[in-house]
């Protein structure tokens, strides 16, 4: 492998960004950064503090004050620590999922998270995934991908993931949550969800995870040569 690249992977909820980005990073020997986990951690802290999700001042205060650290464990999994506590499981609950799109709309929250993410990706050798990586966080990324899939397929995947983790939730509820998050993320005033003009769009509705990872790693390997 030649030079270390910045790789941006964006897309809507349930498109498989986290799994694909993690596996691609492992194969490339790059650092995987799950930006969504950072917003989820801020949301979790707000819920624990019983802060109203419309209270922009206090949500911004939380984002500015919390200590967020991403670490890779011995199994190669990225763990997120909130004020020194591993909250990698707690941030994946349905309640956090329902609230995170609201919290991530807050201008002060996005400013703080974007600053942290830019610092993390500055040196290259990263696979960063989220919703505005190619457009706002790493607009200079050498490789940009936008993963998408039908709402039905994304809801099916997210429902299966939640069931595997022990959460009891109806498919219809997951479908409605994802459709609502799509609407919020795509129509927010600040950093809306959309492909970067130079991103490669990958519709992975009928693709396996391995096929998507192979495609991305192939593109990156040729670009880094």
CATH superfamily: P-loop containing nucleotide triphosphate hydrolases
Could you give the count of β-strands? 8
Determine the structural class based on helices, strands and strand pairing.
alpha/beta
DSSP helix count? 9
CATH topology: Rossmann fold
Q: Report the radius of gyration as a whole number of Å.
A: 17 Å
* CATH class type: Alpha Beta
Which residues form runs of ≥5 with pLDDT under 50? none
Biggest sheet, strands in spatial order? 2-6-1-7-8
Mean pLDDT, as a whole number? 93
Tell me the major beta sheet. 5 strands, parallel
Q: What is the number of independent domains?
A: 1
Helix content: 40-55%
Query: Could you state the order of secondary-structure elements as H and E?
Result: EHEHHEEEHHEHEHHEH
Shape: globular
The fraction of residues assigned to DSSP E strands is 15-25%
Structure description:
- By secondary structure, the chain is α/β, with parallel strands linked by helices.
- It has a single domain, classed as P-loop containing nucleotide triphosphate hydrolases (Rossmann fold).
- The protein is 50% helix and 16% strand.
- The chain is built from nine helices and eight strands.
- It has a five-stranded parallel beta sheet with strand order 2-6-1-7-8, sandwiched between helices. A three-stranded antiparallel beta sheet has the order 3-4-5, covered by helices on one side.
- A hairpin with a 2-residue loop joins β4 (78-82) and β5.
- The chain is globular and about 50 Å long.
- The model has no long low-confidence stretch (mean pLDDT 93).
């Amino acid at each position: 492998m030649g030079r270390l690249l910045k790789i941006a992977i964006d897309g809507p909820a349930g498109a498989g960004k986290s799994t694909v980005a993690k596996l691609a990073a492992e194969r490339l020997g790059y650092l995987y950064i799950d930006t969504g986990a950072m917003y989820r951690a801020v949301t979790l802290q707000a819920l624990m503090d019983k802060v109203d999700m419309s209270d922009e001042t206090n949500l911004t205060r939380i984002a500015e004050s919390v200590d967020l650290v991403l670490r890779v464990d011995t199994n190669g999994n990225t763990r997120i620590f909130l004020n020194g506590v591993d909250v990698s499981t707690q941030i994946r609950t349905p309640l956090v999922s329902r609230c995170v799109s609201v919290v991530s709309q807050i201008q002060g929250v996005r400013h703080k998270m974007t600053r942290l993410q830019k610092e993390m990706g500055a040196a290259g050798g990263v696979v960063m995934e989220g919703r505005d990586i190619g457009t706002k966080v790493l607009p200079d990324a050498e490789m940009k991908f936008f993963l998408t899939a039908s709402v039905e397929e994304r809801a099916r995947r997210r429902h299966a993931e939640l069931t595997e983790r022990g959460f009891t939730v109806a498919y219809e509820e997951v479908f409605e949550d994802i459709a609502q998050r799509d609407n919020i993320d795509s129509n927010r005033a600040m950093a809306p969800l959309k492909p970067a003009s130079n991103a490669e769009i990958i519709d992975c509705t009928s693709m396996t995870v391995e096929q998507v990872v192979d495609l991305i790693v192939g593109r990156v390997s040729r670009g880094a040569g």
